[in-house]
From TrEMBL:
Gene Ontology MF annotations: oxidoreductase activity
SUPFAM superfamilies recorded: GroES-like (SSF50129), NAD(P)-binding Rossmann-fold domains (SSF51735)
Entry keyword set: Membrane, Oxidoreductase, Transmembrane, Transmembrane helix
Protein name: Threonine dehydrogenase-like Zn-dependent dehydrogenase
Residue ranges crossing the lipid bilayer per the database entry: 154-174
Chain ranges of the Alcohol dehydrogenase-like N-terminal domain: 23-123
Presence of the UniProt keyword Oxidoreductase in the record: yes
Keyword Transferase belongs to the record: no
Alcohol dehydrogenase-like C-terminal domain location: 162-282
InterPro entries found in the cross-reference section: ADH-like_C, ADH-like_N, GroES-like_sf, NAD(P)-bd_dom_sf, Zn_alcohol_dh
Length: 345
């Protein structure tokens, strides 16, 4: 079967998986699990600049070959010859295509992908949890050239899946992350993760002088507040695009000049970042498991996309193996956790 986006808010569940014709160096793979990313939900709702319809969405997937070897897939298809590809910056490829955008993705029981995009998954890593390799790889990409230990105080705006994963990676690297999430219910839902990591999460903070800020949400106010919270000479990791056509006061932009703030953009990930993410997940998989809101049959995708779009829950994963017997720490926790909500610190 496959799930096809034919137009905005139009999904078709098709029983026959008509695979695209494989090209040179490409391989047919069986999809085990595919997570629903908020980008998938936004594409379903609004479209996307890179989306070509009709399309099978999905780019956070765990797959297996005909020998049973398991992989995650770097979702980019790069040319391999441009200046960016030769420098190991395949995410900047001049001719980049993306699975789930330009080519059919993982909302199907089979997929065609380049063999060189396959990253082996160790037997010790739960295949469902390996779906976090793509979003976590994006975090590693953003932090690739940033000395966390020398700049330990991080302020992260956005307590969704990406913001929480960023906190986990920063903490493991020796940093001291704090997460700002204005939605109290989301903080409550994240209680299993926050309890396991002891990462501070609040609706706002009076603290300032942070070494680095990451915006893991599109809120223009978070971007503005982040500039004010940085120390002089601080670093702003511009991770999430901002809400379209929003405005910001130029006085705040001037802080970049007066405080000598460095802003670094980050887009997507390269294969090497995803490889690091797989190794990290293998060592820390108990904690990302707390963010699995539910594992669902593929037929439930049309009902789950609106929830993901609305920011309800963290990570929903579609199960193409036909087995739905396992539970994870984060399942059914949304709105039920009894942990404290920290409003200020």
């Amino acid at each position: 079967m496959r799930i096809v986006l034919t137009d905005r808010r139009c999904l078709e569940i098709q029983n026959n998986n008509k695979l695209e014709k494989s090209g040179k160096g490409e391989i047919r793979l069986r999809v085990l699990y595919c997570a629903i990313c908020r980008t998938d939900a936004k594409m379903w709702d609004q479209g996307h600049r890179d989306l070509i319809l009709p399309r099978v969405p999905g780019h956070e997937m765990a797959v297996a070959d005909n020998r049973g070897n398991r992989y995650v897939i770097w979702p980019g298809i790069s040319c391999g010859t441009c200046v960016h590809c030769r420098a190991g910056r395949e995410n900047r490829c001049e001719h980049l295509q993306i699975l789930g955008f330009h080519r059919d993705g993982g909302f199907a029981d089979e997929i065609i992908a380049p063999a060189h995009s396959l990253i082996p998954v160790p037997e010790t890593l739960d295949p469902a949890i390996s779906c976090f390799a793509e979003p976590m790889g994006c975090i590693f990409h953003a932090l690739a050239n940033f000395p966390v230990k020398k700049n330990p105080r991080f302020l992260i705006y956005g307590g969704g899946t990406m913001g929480l994963l960023a906190g986990l990676v920063i903490q493991a690297a020796g940093g001291k992350p704090m997460i700002i999430e204005k939605n109290k219910e989301k903080i409550q839902a994240a209680h299993p993760f926050l309890k396991a990591t002891t990462i501070a999460c609040a609706t706002h903070t009076r603290e300032s002088g942070f070494d680095a800020v990451i915006n893991a949400c599109p809120d223009i106010q978070a971007f503005a507040d982040g500039l004010k919270k940085l120390r002089k000479g601080g670093h702003f990791l511009f991770f999430s695009g901002l809400t379209k056509n929003a405005t910001i006061e130029t006085d705040l932009i001037d802080l970049i000049h007066y405080h000598e703030i460095t802003i670094s953009g980050s887009y997507g990930l390269a294969p090497a970042d995803m490889q690091r993410a797989v190794s990290f997940l293998d060592a820390h998989q108990r904690i990302p498991a707390t963010l699995i809101q539910g594992i669902a049959a593929p037929e439930n995708a049309p009902d789950l996309l609106p929830q993901v779009l609305a920011g309800k829950g963290f990570k929903y994963i579609l199960d193409f193996t036909g087995s739905l017997s396992r539970e994870y720490a984060g399942q059914n926790h949304q709105g039920t956790s009894q942990g404290p909500i920290l409003e200020t610190k």
